[in-house]
Amino acid sequence: MTITIYGSGVSRGIAIGKVYRLERGEVEVYEAAIPRHLVEDEVARFQRAVEIARQQLRSIRDSIPGSTPVDITDFIDTHLLMLDDSLLTAAPVELIRQRQCNAEWALKAQRDALAQVFDEMDDPYLRTRKDDIDHVVTRIQRILLGLDASSEEPAAEQLRGTIVLAHDLTPAETALLHHQGIAGFATESGGPLSHTSILARSLGMPAIVGTHLIPQQIRDGSTVILDAGHGMLLADVDDATLKDYRRRRRKEQKRRSELNRLKDQPAVTLDGIGIRLLANVELREDVLAARRAAADGIGLYRTEFLFMNRSDIPDEEEQLKQYLSVMKTLKGLPITIRTLDLGSDKECGAEPASEHIAPNPALGLRAIRLCLKYADLFRPQLRAILRASARGPVRLMIPMLSSARELNEVLTLIEDVRQELARDGLAFDPDMPVGGMIEVPAAALSAGLFAKRLDFLSIGTNDLIQYTLAIDRVDDEVTYLYDPLHPAVLRLIKMVIDAGRQQQVPVAMCGEMAGDPVYTRLLLGMGLTDFSVHPTSLLEVKATIQHSRVSDFRDLVDDILAEDDPEAIASLLSRLNQI
Length: 579
Prior knowledge:
Layout (H helix, E strand, L loop, with lengths): L2 E4 L1 E4 L2 E9 L16 H25 L6 H13 L3 H14 L3 H17 L4 H4 L2 H15 L11 H4 L3 E4 L4 H9 L4 E4 L7 H9 L3 E3 L13 E5 L4 E4 L3 H22 L15 E6 L2 H9 L5 E4 L14 H15 L4 E4 L28 H7 L1 H14 L5 E5 L5 H21 L9 E5 L2 H5 L1 H7 L2 E4 L1 H9 L17 H16 L4 E3 L10 H6 L4 E4 L4 H9 L3 H13 L3 H13 L1
Parallel strand pairs: 3-4, 4-5, 5-6, 9-10, 9-16, 10-11, 11-12, 12-13, 13-14, 14-15, 15-16
Antiparallel strand pairs: 1-8, 2-6, 3-7, 7-8
Helix pairs in contact: 1-2, 1-3, 1-6, 2-11, 3-4, 4-6, 8-9, 12-14, 14-15, 22-23
């Protein structure tokens, strides 16, 4: 009987191969008292473990061929940088000295404190950065406990063509396994926004994460099917199923080859409507992936990562250097830089930690609300973005606008910064476009107001759906309510697109909905002409655009927008995608 295990598919594709179970074993840590005269010895033991962890990561990085794209090894460098972060390496030393406890317990205590900060964050991408802390901490803990990782590493010939099953994988392990030729992997933990998942997408490796449990019945050496597109791992399959999936894999490979040929082709519908296909990026590897997919530019550059995993905040010069580095990689393509969108946790070194505990961070002090409250945090970023605009096509985008008062404050502050830069003799583009994200229902309902005063709008569907339907999209108990096709959501989107057209202001969409080909024709029929998507989705969206004649289905889209019944909407959408 076939065993089916479900998880989150983090990349598309089908892999068929023999199982290799990568068993690391659980790391259990207990507190132990250290005599006062041995405390410094314990500090030295911890510091040696950190250095060994650093050597291990460097060894893994050095073992990856030089021909490997630099964005792949960047993930390993991220973990190396974390080993230099005082929050992870100096803080446990202080705990060892203060509490006279063993190094393992001090590291666990610091890990738990950092994890709590990330758990309270509203942004799901930032929340999953906790995984990186866990990966680095576990590596150090295993060294402290004498669990030699190098002795457990399988030989490359054992791994080639296999599907690895593991509790979790670090980005370093994922890069190494890919180099060793695995066909794909499935992990019990992890989420689709973790660095391991992002790396799997960048590598084009079929993978699923968050299966919660991989049964022991799946034996080493048994043949399994990994259907990443549907988030499934199939074991004990019959010959007919195996034959069917091999056929699907050949079809998928052919499809991928066809998509790659679209890179140099324009995104134009069959009736001649030109579409701008932009990319959503955050890390350097995302920017490189956008270039490889021939994106028209960057429609959303998230800046939060610059502020995370540190006890201070990046100054103006550090931020400017980062923006210019991305612009250099883009080679003249336009970039839209979104200002800081942190949650109400505000753990970025900007201000002393607040004693106020937000009962609902998603509705609290976040994004532009936080930036306007802490101008000392916001002003250096505005200066850096404006200075970057002197060196290329830059647009500035404000997240989570909800009222005219906020807009007035933001525009006044931007004008103040322009005058400051002029007084300082620093170059900037005085006509740099300023836009806003529409991700709050109030903003969508007031889209006409925002369109009159801004240079562009961008619809952030992830939050717009969440706030419109009053559900937390990362809460397993209510995610079934998350519905991009809810009539209220569709009408708000249409309202924003129409407001932009009336004011002759460009409107883009940068949420996940824009990158799903299922919705491409619907959005085209609603009048959307600027899509900003994850780089891995760009070519699929382009293919749908090229096979669409908008004039053929505008009436059907109007029928969808007028419909209230969810089943009827789904049926009409199915018809739309078959035209």
